[in-house]
């Protein structure tokens, strides 16, 4: 049986909830959630676009949110800055004009890391990866990495 653990990471004036269970990390805000699994990423935040940008060695997937990712009102804040949540490294950065949550995935994942901002999700992977999509247009997106 895999143990589940929840933490709260600072996000703007509140926090995002991080729940880790084995090699799965769920990031939940007030208006949606993003789930990082070894071979897929599920985005349950209303979105307006998805696009892939590739260079010789890397491929980036961008998913733009319809409205900013809102914080929860947490009972506590466990993580400010950099920390480990299970096998994931999470880094919160707040610049005056934008907040960033970087999620560095374990080696078992088919993508290297993801960056969540208030407006967008970016996932970086090797250029050789193929992406397949399962969509409920503009409501839910599942991205499979092969």
Give the SSE string. Answer: EEEEEEEEEEEEEE
Tell me the count of domains. Answer: 1
Distance between the termini: 27 Å
Strand order of the largest sheet: 1-2-3-4-5-14-13
Number of helices: 0
What's the β-strand tally?
Answer: 14
Low-confidence stretches: none
Overall average residue pLDDT: 94
Largest sheet: 7 strands, antiparallel
Description:
This protein is mainly beta. It is 0% helix and 63% strand. The chain has no helices and 14 strands. The protein has a seven-stranded antiparallel β-sheet, with no helix packed on it. The protein has a seven-stranded antiparallel β-sheet with strand order 6-7-12-11-10-9-8, with no helix packed on it. It is globular, with a radius of gyration of 14 Å.
Gist of the model:
With 146 residues, the chain is mainly beta. The chain is built from no helices and 14 strands. A 7-stranded antiparallel sheet has the order 1-2-3-4-5-14-13, with no helix packed on it. It has a 7-stranded antiparallel sheet with strand order 6-7-12-11-10-9-8, with no helix packed on it.
